[in-house]
Q: What sequence folds into this?
């Protein structure tokens, strides 16, 4: 294989298999080594000369940052979401943006179901109850939850992750409905899912699972009006991006007990969490771990590295956005 000669900057340590792959291709790789989000001034210093950058969703590549990239041919985002990058502007500057679809679908769909089950069976509350020494023996009405069978699992955005979550929901005996821009025939065949309007989706879902990308159009898509359409007994699950839900509105909704429970892997303004969310007992919040499995994170890193190698060798992007 012809060795490449170019500089790659990686904004945080990613699985070593990917770094090895880049180095084996002859690339000059440097990595921001501290275990923290890279400060902006260090990012700016390092991207000036880089021919390729592997970025994380914690770094914003806006016009000002992109303007500093004098040699860059590719920003390979180590995530499927790319709301941290001004893709249109990067395109204007002839920089290709890539992401990591598919390789994290199963992990994120697994976590979606973990939140569904944790909320429905009050797992966190039950464990706390036990650890606080409150368990005095089995009793008929202890910590009653909700069975999944025959409940309606509604997916907002029927892309890869939404569809994979729907397959899992079907295996639990749930009825699947979805709303999305286009029809997803494969999903319909695999799960018997029915496409419905957003209004019907919100009004009829027992579990509403959000799988939309974050864009200008989807920012606060779940606003107060839409939240008020949900059943008082509904569960709201979000493993996509926090900004899709109007968080202040959701907090008020939860405080008034207008939802059974929200299961959130993401929230607005990560990592700064709204203290009001932490006080609620009808919400389960995780620190954005949807793709946090060894398999997914390694494959995400390898895909980002392969995109870099492919673009720098003139073969184009494998997964352009
Ligand atoms: C993504 O890929 O967009 C997730 O949020 C992190 O894996």
A:
């Amino acid at each position: 294989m012809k060795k490449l000669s170019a500089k790659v900057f990686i904004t945080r340590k990613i699985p070593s298999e990917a770094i090895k792959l880049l180095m084996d291709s002859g690339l000059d790789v440097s990595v921001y080594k501290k275990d923290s989000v890279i400060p902006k001034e260090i990012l700016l210093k390092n991207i000036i000369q880089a021919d390729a950058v592997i970025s994380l969703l914690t770094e914003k590549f806006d016009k000002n940052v992109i303007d500093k990239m004098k040699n860059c041919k590719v920003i390979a985002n180590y995530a499927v979401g790319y709301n941290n990058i001004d893709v249109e502007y990067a395109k204007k500057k002839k920089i290709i943006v890539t992401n990591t679809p598919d390789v994290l679908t199963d992990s994120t769909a697994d976590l979606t179901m973990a939140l569904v089950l944790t909320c429905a069976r009050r797992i966190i509350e039950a464990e706390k109850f036990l650890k606080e020494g409150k368990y005095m023996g089995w009793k008929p009405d202890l910590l009653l939850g909700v069975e999944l069978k025959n409940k309606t699992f509604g997916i907002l955005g029927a892309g890869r992750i939404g569809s994979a979550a729907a397959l899992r929901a079907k295996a639990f005996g749930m009825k699947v409905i979805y709303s999305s821009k286009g029809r997803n025939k494969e999903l319909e065949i695999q799960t018997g899912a029915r496409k419905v309007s957003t209004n019907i989706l919100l009004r009829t879902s027992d579990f509403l699972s959000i799988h939309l990308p974050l864009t200008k159009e989807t920012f606060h898509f779940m606003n107060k009006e839409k939240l008020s359409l949900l059943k008082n007994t509904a569960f709201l699950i979000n493993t996509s991006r926090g900004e899709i839900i109007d968080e202040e509105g959701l907090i008020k909704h939860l405080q008034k007990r207008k939802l059974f429970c929200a299961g959130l892997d993401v929230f607005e303004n990560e990592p700064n969490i709204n203290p009001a969310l932490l006080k609620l007992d009808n919400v389960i919040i995780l620190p954005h771990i949807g793709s946090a499995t060894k398999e997914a994170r390694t494959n995400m890193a390898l895909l980002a590295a392969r995109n870099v190698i492919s673009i720098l060798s003139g073969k184009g992007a494998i997964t352009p956005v």
Q: What stands out?
A: The CA atoms of residues 59 and 280 lie 30 Å apart. The two ends are 27 Å apart (CA to CA). The mean pLDDT is 97. Residues 57, 79-81, 104, 290-291 surround (2R)-2,3-dihydroxypropanoic acid (CB under 6 Å).
